[in-house]
Design brief:
The complex is a heterodimer of chains A (371) and B (241). By secondary structure, chain A is mainly α. Chain A has 14 helices and four strands. Chain A has two domains: 235 residues, no CATH class; 98 residues, abc type-2 transporter like domain (abc type-2 transporter like fold, 3-Layer(aba) Sandwich). Chain B has eight helices and eleven strands. The longest helix of chain B has 16 residues. The chains are: A mainly alpha (371), B alpha/beta (241).
C-alpha cells in the first residue's frame, strides 16, 4: 500500500495506451492537428505587408518621376494606382493605404543633380501596417538615389550600421513557426490531459480506481506518460513541418531542444491535470483548458508582443507561463544556435514550473469523493 | 478468511445544506449478506462510500473489526472491494483487459490470477465472452464484470452499490446466486438496492429512509416486528407516519 509502485503506474499507462489506440479522434488530434495548424497558420500569419495600394498624384510626369514609380513597383511591396483626383480621398475611402505626391519640377531638379522632393503619406489608422510601410521606405530611397543620382544619399555625420543577425532576411515565418508550434503543442497537451482525467471522474471509473490500492502518483504518472509521448510525437511532426515546409534553419542542439520540449510538455500536461482534478468535468475542463492555455500563451508569452515592452507587472507575470520560456528556447535553438549557457535560464524556469504544476496537481488530487 | 465486521455510530453526512445521513448506527456483522434497502435518495450510496473510505463522516464514526478486534481502515482496505453504482468500467476494454488491469492494481501473481480469473469467469459464465468489450455487454453481463473486477483480489469485505439496478430479472437472480455463494465463503457482503423484493434475499436488512434508519435485523423478524406483509408497507407507513 505504501510508496510508489512502478508496476501499477505502468498498468495505468498501458490501459491509457489502449484507450488512445482505440480512439482515432484522440490519435488524429494529437498527431495531425499540430502539424496541420502550424502549416495552416504558418502560411496565414505573416508580419510582412505586401500589395500596398499607393495612390499616385504625378504632377511632374517627367522621366525621373517615372523612374521613382518604377522603383516603388519593382520592390514587390507596392501597387501604384494613378489618380487625377485627390489621393487623400482614396485614403479616406480605404481604396489606398498610402499616397505618393510628385510635384512639378521633380524631374528637372533630379536631372540637374539638385535635391528633388516627393511626399509619401501613410494611413496612420492602422499603425502596425504603417510602421511596416515605413520600414520599406529607406530601401526605396536608396534605390532611387542610385538610379537618379548614380550614388547613395550622402552619409550623415553619424551613421548607425544596422545588420540583422540570425534571420538576415527578416523572414517572419522563421520567427513565427517555432512560437506557433509551442502554443499549439502546449494547448494540445493541456486539453488532452484535462479531458482524460476529467473523463475518469465523470464516468465514475475514478471512484472504482480510488477504492483499489492504486495511489494518486501512480495514476498521475500512468496517465501523463502516454500523453507525453503522444504530444512529443506531435512535436516531431511540427519540427519536420518547420524544417521542410517553411525551411526554418535549426542551428542549436537537438538534445537541448528535446530537453526543453520534455520540460514544456510536462508543464503543460501538469497544468491540464490540475484543471481536471479541480473541475472533474470534461466540458468545464475543456473550457478552462482553452482559456488558460491559449490566451496567456498567445498574448503574454512573447509570441507576438515582446515581453520587454510590457508593463513591469506583466513582465514578472509572464515568468509564470511555461510558453514564455519555451518560445525563448525554441527560437534560440532554431534561429540562434543557442547552447547550454544561453538556454540555462529558460530550461531551469521550465523545470521549476513543471515541478510546481505537478506538485499542485498532486496536492489537489483527492483520494476520496468529497466535493 | 479473516472475519471482518463494520459498525457505525451516529453516522452523519451533510453535503452543504443537504443532510444525506442523519445519525445512523449500523451493525454489519461478519460473514453475512447484508442488504441496505431504500428508495432513491435514501442515503444508500453515501453510506457505501463512507464504508469504503471514499467519504468522510460529518459526525459519528465508522468502526472496523477483524476477528473480533478493532482494526484501522488501513488494515481493512487491502481486503475491501467496492463496486460503485455508476457504470464505472471502460467501454473500450474487453473483459480480459479489465481483469488484467485490476490484476495489476492488486498485484496478483500469475498463478493466483490464473486460478482466480478462471474461477470467476466460470461462475459468472462470462468465459465465452472474454474478448468482448465492456461497452458491448448486456446490462447483466456488465454488472457481472464489475463484480469480477471487485472479487479478483478475493476480498473479505464486498460493498456492492445497487448492483442489480437496471438488470433483467433472470440476470438479477443469477447475480444473487453469486452473492449467496460469496456469503457462504464467510465474506462480509453489503448490497444496497431499491428493489424491495431483494430485501428478503438478504440475511440481514437495514431499511434506510431519507437518511434515517427505519429498521434493522433479520428480514422476517423486521416484517413481524413492524406488522407488515412486505417491505413496501414499512416504507409507506414510515412516509405517512
Amino acid at each position: 500500500m505504501t510508496g510508489f509502485d512502478l508496476h501499477r503506474a505502468w498498468s495505468v499507462a498501458r490501459k491509457e495506451v489502449m484507450h488512445i489506440l482505440r480512439d482515432p479522434f484522440t490519435l488524429a488530434l494529437a498527431l495531425g492537428l499540430p502539424v496541420m495548424l502550424v502549416t495552416f497558420f504558418g502560411y496565414a500569419i505573416d508580419f510582412e505587408v505586401r500589395d500596398i495600394k499607393v495612390a499616385v498624384a504625378d504632377r511632374d510626369s517627367g522621366p525621373a518621376a517615372r523612374r521613382l514609380k518604377e522603383i516603388f513597383s519593382a520592390s514587390g511591396y507596392f501597387r501604384l494606382l494613378e489618380t487625377d483626383g485627390n489621393p487623400v480621398e482614396m485614403l479616406d475611402s480605404r481604396r489606398a493605404d498610402a499616397a505618393l505626391f510628385i510635384e512639378p519640377g521633380f524631374s528637372r531638379d533630379a536631372l540637374a543633380g539638385r535635391p528633388a522632393r516627393a511626399q509619401f503619406v501613410l494611413d496612420g489608422s492602422d499603425n502596425s501596417k504603417g510602421a511596416v510601410m515605413m520600414g520599406y521606405l529607406p530601401g526605396i530611397q536608396r534605390a532611387a538615389a542610385l538610379r537618379l543620382y548614380g550614388s547613395e544619399p550622402a552619409p550623415a555625420p553619424l551613421r548607425l550600421e544596422t545588420r540583422f543577425l540570425f534571420n538576415p532576411e527578416l523572414n517572419s515565418r522563421w520567427f513565427m513557426v517555432p512560437g506557433l508550434g509551442a502554443i499549439i503543442i502546449g494547448l494540445l497537451a493541456i486539453l488532452l490531459t484535462a479531458m482524460t482525467v476529467a473523463r475518469e471522474w465523470e464516468n465514475g471509473s475514478m471512484e472504482l480506481l480510488l477504492s483499489t490500492p492504486v495511489r494518486p502518483l501512480e495514476i498521475i504518472i500512468g496517465k501523463l506518460a502516454p500523453y507525453g509521448l503522444l504530444v512529443l510525437t506531435g512535436v516531431f511532426f511540427v519540427y519536420l513541418s518547420a524544417r521542410l515546409v517553411f525551411g526554418v534553419p535549426f542551428l542549436g542542439s537537438h538534445l537541448l531542444f528535446l530537453l526543453a520540449c520534455l520540460l514544456f510538455i510536462t508543464a503543460a500536461l501538469s497544468q491540464g491535470l490540475f484543471i481536471s482534478v479541480v473541475t472533474r468535468q470534461q466540458q468545464v475542463a475543456m473550457q478552462v483548458g482553452i482559456i488558460s492555455g491559449l490566451l496567456p500563451s498567445m498574448l503574454l508569452s512573447g509570441f507576438i508582443f515582446p515581453v520587454e515592452s510590457m508593463p513591469p507587472f506583466f513582465q514578472y507575470f509572464t515568468m509564470l507561463l511555461p510558453p514564455r520560456w519555451f518560445i525563448v528556447a525554441a527560437r534560440g535553438s532554431f534561429l540562434k544556435g543557442a547552447g547550454a549557457a544561453e538556454l540555462a535560464v529558460p530550461l531551469l524556469a521550465l523545470a521549476g514550473l513543471s515541478l510546481l504544476l505537478l506538485t499542485l496537481a498532486l496536492k489537489k488530487f483527492k483520494t476520496d469523493l468529497e466535493p | 478468511m479473516p472475519g471482518f465486521a463494520i459498525r457505525t455510530e451516529g453516522l452523519k453526512k451533510n453535503f452543504g445544506a443537504v443532510r444525506a445521513l442523519r445519525g445512523v448506527s449500523f451493525d454489519f456483522s461478519e460473514g453475512l449478506l447484508h442488504g441496505l434497502i431504500g428508495s432513491n435518495g435514501a442515503g444508500k450510496t453515501t453510506t457505501m462510500r463512507l464504508l469504503a473510505g471514499l467519504l468522510k463522516p460529518s459526525a459519528g464514526s465508522v468502526r472496523y473489526s477483524l476477528d473480533g478486534r478493532p482494526a484501522e481502515f488501513a488494515q481493512v482496505r487491502p481486503g475491501l472491494a467496492y463496486m460503485p453504482q455508476q457504470a464505472s468500467l471502460y467501454p473500450d476494454l474487453s473483459i480480459d483487459e479489465h481483469l488484467q488491469f485490476f490484476r495489476a492494481l492488486y498485484r496478483l501473481d500469475a498463478a493466483t490470477y490464473a486460478r482466480r480469473s478462471k474461477e470467476l469467469l466460470g461462475i459468472t459464465r462470462l468465459d465465452k465472452f472474454r474478448e468482448r468489450r465492456a461497452g458491448q455487454l448486456s446490462g447483466g453481463m456488465y454488472k457481472k464484470l464489475g463484480l469480477m473486477c471487485a472479487l479478483l483480489q478475493s476480498p473479505s469485505v464486498l460493498l456492492l452499490d445497487e448492483p442489480t439496478n437496471g438488470v433483467d430479472p433472470i440476470s438479477r437472480r443469477e447475480f444473487w446466486e453469486l452473492l449467496y455463494a460469496l456469503a457462504a465463503d464467510k465474506i462480509l457482503v453489503i448490497v444496497s438496492t431499491a428493489y424491495m423484493d431483494e430485501a428478503e434475499r438478504c440475511s440481514r436488512v437495514h431499511l434506510l429512509d431519507a437518511g434515517a434508519l427505519l429498521a434493522s435485523g433479520e428480514p422476517r423478524a423486521v416484517l413481524k416486528e413492524r406488522g407488515a406483509a412486505n417491505f413496501e408497507e414499512i416504507f409507506i407507513k414510515g412516509a405517512n407516519g
